């Protein structure tokens, strides 16, 4: 599978697990819970979570991961901040923003947009352009060049993007 190296690199660090029966389910959608776990594990270290709410829709490890990534400014709560929406999907645009924040990269805004579907005023343009500029992503279509920012990202595509962002696999 094209994402095998990325999945194995994340699995070796305890950042991802399967979906049952020894499978990874690469085509399934990445959830907010899954994104929070990956980034909480990769960003491991002490962080003050005292100001972060106990999200009413989380418990156990999920609550810990959610609180940690919110405290780090990587992700935010949903529905006014009282919930985390752990089973909600993650769009390609949202993951670009999460990675930019996690890696502490600045926005990148070339004079002309790189992708036909990410105009200058798109809320995630700076993050999308940054991960493109770093060679981490190439988009979802080449003619015309598109990023598909509103599409939910698959577990496989997310694993590759995240593993590349952290330098865990070669490009």
Structure characterization notes:
With 171 residues, the protein is mainly alpha-helical. Helices cover 37% and strands 2% of the residues. Strand 1 and strand 2 form a beta hairpin. The chain starts with a helix and ends in a 6-residue tail after the last helix.
Q: Key features?
A:
single chain; 171 residues; mainly alpha; two-stranded antiparallel ribbon; 2 strands; globular
Q: Give the number of helices.
A: 6
CA radius of gyration: 16 Å
Mean pLDDT: 95
Q: Let me know the number of strands.
A: 2
Q: Helices and strands: which structural class?
A: mainly alpha
Brief write-up:
The chain is mainly alpha-helical and 171 residues long. It has helices at residues 4-12, 32-42, 60-71, 92-102, 125-133, 155-165, and strands at 141-142, 145-146.
Walk me through the topology.
Elements: H1 4-12, H2 32-42, H3 60-71, H4 92-102, H5 125-133, E1 141-142, E2 145-146, H6 155-165
Antiparallel strand pairs: 1-2
Helix pairs in contact: 1-6, 2-3, 4-5
